[in-house]
Design goal:
Distance between the termini: 26 Å
Number of strands: 15
Structural class: alpha+beta
CATH superfamily of the largest domain: D-amino Acid Aminotransferase, subunit A, domain 2
Order of helices and strands: EEHEEHHEEHEHEEEEHEHEEEH
Radius of gyration: 19 Å
Largest sheet: 9 strands, mixed
Bound molecules: N-(5'-phosphopyridoxyl)-D-alanine
Strand content: 25-35%
CATH topology of the largest domain: D-amino Acid Aminotransferase, Chain A, domain 2
Number of domains: 2
Length: 287
Amino acid sequence: MSRTVYLNGDYMPEEDAKVSIFDRGFLMADGVYEVTTVLDGKLIDFTGHAVRLQRSLKELDMASPIEMEDLLEVHRELVKRNNIDEGLIYLQVTRGAPADRDFVFPDPEKTPSTIVLFTQNKPGLANSPAAKTGMKIISIEDQRWARRDIKTVQLLFPSMGKMMAKAAGCDDAWLVEDGHVTEGTSNNAYIIKDGKIITRNLSNDILHGITRAAVLRFAREAQMEVEERAFSIEEAQNADEAFVTSASTFVMPVVEIDGAKLGGGRPGPVAARLREIYLEESRKTAI
Ligand code: PDD
C-alpha cells in the first residue's frame, strides 16, 4: 500500500514525491538525516532527535527548512496518516537543488533546503527475535570521514561494512580506528566487564546517539557503573557481554565478535535488563 510522505511542505502519495536531479543530497551527499522510533503510535525521544538535527544543520551551515514545533506536527501527522503503531520515521534535509552542479554552496536565499519525511511500518519492532539470540559481528577498519558526529547521508562505507558482515555470515560490523572501536556501522558499541558498562567517549569520532544518551542515563539511575572510554576488539572479545544501541534496535545484544563467543554465545543479563529498562522508560516519555 502506498504511503503518505512529506516533501517540502506537502503531504502526498510516495509515488508523487519527486526531487530534482540537481539536488545536492543526490549529487554530493550534502544532507543530514534523523531516524525516530514510533512505539504505541508515539514518538520516542523526539526532542533529542530534533536537537541533534539542528546541530547537524548548524555544523554544515545549512538552513533549517522548518520550525521545531512544525516538525513535531509533521511527525505526528505522518504517524496518523500511515496508521503507524510501531515503526520508524525517516527525515532528511539537503542543501536543496541549485540550477546546476557546483561544489560551491548555493545561496540559501535562492536555493531552499529540501526536506523529506517518510514512515517505515515495523510491527513487532520492540519484540525483535534478534534480541533473544543476539548479533554476531565482525570488525573492520573505520574508513569514514572524520566528522562522524554529524549525521550526514554519506552512508556508503557503513553500507559496505554491512555487506562485508553479511558475506562473513554475520549481522553487522564494528569499526576500528587506531586499534580501538569507534562504533557500529549504524549503532553505538558497548562492552560489559565485571558489571561495568564501557562505551566510547563522545567526540567527533562517533555519532552522539540519542539512544546512547538515554541508555547511559537509565543505567546510572539504576546504580550501574558506566565508563566512557575507547576499547579494543581484544578487550571486547574478553568482555562478559557486549551490545549496541540505536533508535531502530534499542539495546541489542552482541554474542560473537570476530568468531570469539561472549557469554557462551547467548545474550547476557545486563544487556537484557538495559533493553527492558530502555523500552519501559522510553514508552513512558513518548509523545
Ligand atoms: N543510525 N552511530 C551511527 C553511525 C548511526 O548511524 C546511528 C544511528 C547510531 C545510533 O544513534 P541513535 O541512537 O540516535 O539512533 C550510532 C540510524 C538508526 C540509521 O542510520 O538508521
